[in-house]
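Input for the complex:
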Amino acid sequence: MASLHSYLLVSGLLFAIGLAGVVLRRNIIVIFMCLELMLSAANLTLVAFSRFNGKDGLPDYNGQMLVFFVITVAAAEVAVGLAIIVALYRARQTINTEDLTSMRG
Amino acid sequence: MPLALFWFFAIVMLVGGLAVVSLRNPVASALSMVASFVGLAGLFIGLNAFFVGIIQILVYAGAIMVLFIFIIMLLDLQTEEKRAPKLAPVLGGLGIVLAFSIQLIGILSKTPNIKSEPLDLAAASASYADKSPGISSKLAAGHLPDVNLIGDVLFKGYNLPLQIVGVLLLVSTVGVVVLSKRQTT
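Predicted:
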């Protein structure tokens, strides 16, 4: 069975992939998806620690509670974020971040 | 979970993530993200977190990704046209990711590498004997009643945060309706 380090390594790599997507991509919907990837990587870390630092022979369920709340807040975030993207597209007819520079100083 | 299954799901997850970042068509990105989330749910279930794994499939791979694909369809996005990438952001982005990966190696060398032990259900059954006889009897029978345990912790220890999250979902629903209503004034 895999040890804690394997899980941490895999979730760290997933986080790095998501971070690379956020920095490199120009499509705002894909940037949003990469944000979700980063949240999921954090969830994997939480569940791995909850399983490997169990007490009384069970996983530590406080960690899984945090994952539950993260997933709930992420769902709300996706709904609001996509509504903002739709409003943005209506106003500007683009979702390329290079064309959205009106707040650049 | 056997080591081979762990690496199978991990590679499905990582390849899915790489495809999200590298594919040019947003619909292809969204579908490879579903693959990534299915691999992640497999890892959750391998960690005995059955409830979180099922939620990952239902909420992320189901609801959230349908929302993404629906918005992509609504905006009628085609494959984005190739633009010459500016060198500075690309180099900066790769630099940040490289620094993060190096830091990851440092953290891994300092964290104790805990080997996994099988869950001790008999001890858990004894600790739940006076708190909840139903959970205790299931544990004594050798099953892990994951959803019962999560419900026990959620409604006894996290009742107020649960209600606050409910209000948050209501507020975000109202916010989405307000945002997507076409302004007529």
